[in-house]
TrEMBL record:
It comes from Paenibacillus dendritiformis C454. Gene3D superfamilies: 3.30.390.30, FAD/NAD(P)-binding domain. The keyword Membrane does not apply. GO terms for molecular function: flavin adenine dinucleotide binding; NAD(P)H dehydrogenase (quinone) activity. Residues 337-434 form the Pyridine nucleotide-disulphide oxidoreductase dimerisation domain. This is FAD-dependent pyridine nucleotide-disulfide oxidoreductase. Residues 6-301 form the FAD/NAD(P)-binding domain. It comes from the Bacteria. InterPro entries: FAD/NAD-bd_sf, FAD/NAD-binding_dom, FAD/NAD-linked_Rdtase_dimer_sf, Pyr_nucl-diS_OxRdtase_dimer. Pfam families: Pyr_redox_2, Pyr_redox_dim.
């Protein structure tokens, strides 16, 4: 008699659910992915996809000729192709897809509610909670897709507003301000007293706000916005202290809440924690050992964290011995034109930590000059032993540069080793190589 395959059920078809499903299938499990939307859909189909569409279309069409409809078409095209690709990946891996909304009936049984069909039960030896998080909007500022937008309703925009209030910061706030100001809209950005912050590296905040100010964005820090009123085709944002700001439209981004509260987790023997999720160990395993959690459902940071956590959880669940997720080695990124990315330490003032910041326009880089994107910087941090411990990049291919820095941190490489690396010519990687050479030459004798 053959060995029984482990039955796995994954709730959610976002990046975390896809990763958990594909990894467990690769290790011989019989996997069902339950999703109430299309597998493979990313939340970033909002601002991030719009910025990428603009970056790819504007060199040909010119930004002034781009309408929301044209951008939407490009975004929808990307989404349809990514749906086909996700479905193909799941089919090739032998993962069954069940459309519907899952919730727990017990620790081993999920009930899936389906449109116009009877609910069905799915029994599983292992269950992955990967049902993401939803944006949070106070009652007094709900997006309507006509005057008040969020990343979920950008697709409803038919005309670019001449003036926009962006409420909230974080990566999505930065992307929204970038998007509207690139189109030439007058942007008033309402953030809290110590904002705007992307919550990754303060040097990113300083650089991006410098760019946005040059585009005449008004950055207005102050008390929280408590309501948005609509009247006569205008919107008015009202702060806690009663001050007001008026524009043609508003864009709201005020954080996320995990969707775990929709899963009836008590039936599985789990309890909700203060964050609105369930506690887990560093491998994503909950108090019920056969139930794992990953992605925004566990902690809303970024897609890259979701995927890393899901892979670790999947490997642990199938009996491998993965290393626990180390956020210091995860490259976080957002935005487009300019790209921004960061990994590891950012605090150059910490004891025993050294740093160097190099600006694109003062260093040799053929690719940057060819592409006309010479604005940006690279910051590298290393410790007393000469090991790379952090990096931040803004500008041309910042995401790729920082992914390489993440590998250096992960493999505990020193400047002495790293400066031996060679970047293709012309490429943005040469920028990293030149920076490493400069640090090495200046500090010869420091590195291991
Ligand atoms: C505008 C925007 C831009 C972003 N840009 C970046 C970026 O540049 N880089 C980056 O790393 N991250 C980015 N992120 C973050 C990233 O998109 C999320 O971290 C990531 O999507 C989380 O993945 P997830 O699989 O955990 O959750 P989700 O992507 O939310 O997927 C969860 C899925 O589960 C489904 N679901 C929910 N409940 C149920 C249920 N009961 N039954 C069945 N299915 C269910 C949902 O419909 C959804 O499809 C961005 C996010 C936004 C909003």
């Amino acid at each position: 008699m053959g060995v029984q395959k482990k039955k796995v059920a994954v709730i959610g078809g976002g990046p975390a659910g896809m990763e958990a499903a594909l990894t467990t299938a690769r290790y011989g499990c019989e996997v069902t992915l339950i999703t109430d939307s299309h597998p493979g859909d990313w939340k970033m189909a909002g601002t991030a996809a719009w910025l990428q569409a603009i970056a790819s279309l504007s060199p040909y069409a010119g930004i002034e000729s781009l309408s929301p409809r044209r951008i939407n078409e490009a975004v929808q095209d990307v989404i349809s192709r990514s749906r086909v690709s996700a479905a193909e990946q799941l089919r090739a891996a032998g993962v069954a897809v069940q459309h519907g909304r899952a919730c727990f009936q017990s620790a081993q049984i999920l009930t899936v509610a389906q449109e116009q069909r009877e609910p069905m039960d799915i029994h599983a030896d292992l269950i992955f909670i990967a049902n993401g998080a939803r944006p949070h909007f106070p009652e007094a500022m709900k997006p309507d897709g006509r005057q008040i937008y969020s990343y979920t309703t950008l697709t409803d925009m038919e005309r670019l507003p001449a003036s926009v209030i962006v409420v909230g910061d974080g990566p999505i706030g930065y992307e929204a301000v970038n998007l509207f100001s690139r189109f030439g809209a007058q942007v008033d950005w309402l953030v809290e007293a110590n904002g705007p912050r992307c919550f990754f590296d303060p040097d990113i905040d300083a650089w991006l706000t410098g760019i946005y100010r040059r585009r005449k964005v008004n950055i207005r820090s102050g008390e929280r916005v408590k309501a948005i009123h609509k009247q006569d085709g205008r919107v008015t944002a009202i702060r806690e202290d009663g001050t007001e700001q008026e524009a043609e439209a508003a864009f709201i981004t005020l954080g996320f809440r995990p969707n775990v509260d929709q899963l009836n987790i008590e039936a599985a023997g789990l309890t909700m924690n203060g964050y609105g999720s369930v506690d887990c160990n560093p491998f994503g395993q909950t108090a019920i050992p056969s139930i794992y959690i990953a992605g925004d459902a566990q902690r809303t940071i970024a897609g890259v964290y979701s995927i890393t956590m899901a892979r670790t959880a999947a490997l642990h669940a199938v009996g491998r011995s993965p290393e626990p997720v180390d956020v210091r080695t995860i490259p976080f990124a957002f935005n487009d034109a300019p790209e921004v990315a960061t990994v590891g330490m950012t605090d150059a003032d910490a004891t025993g930590i050294h740093s160097r910041v190099v600006h694109y326009n003062t260093e040799r880089n053929g690719k940057a000059f060819l592409q006309g994107e010479t604005e940006g910087f690279l910051k590298l941090l290393w410790n007393d032993e000469g090991r790379i411990v952090g990096g931040t990049a803004v500008g041309l291919q910042a995401k790729d540069i920082i992914s390489t820095v993440a590998m250096m941190i992960r493999f505990k490489l020193g400047i002495g080793d790293c400066q031996l690396l060679i970047g293709a010519h012309p490429s943005a990687s040469e920028f990293l190589v030149h920076t490493l050479h400069a640090i090495h030459d200046q500090h010869a004798g420091v590195q291991s």
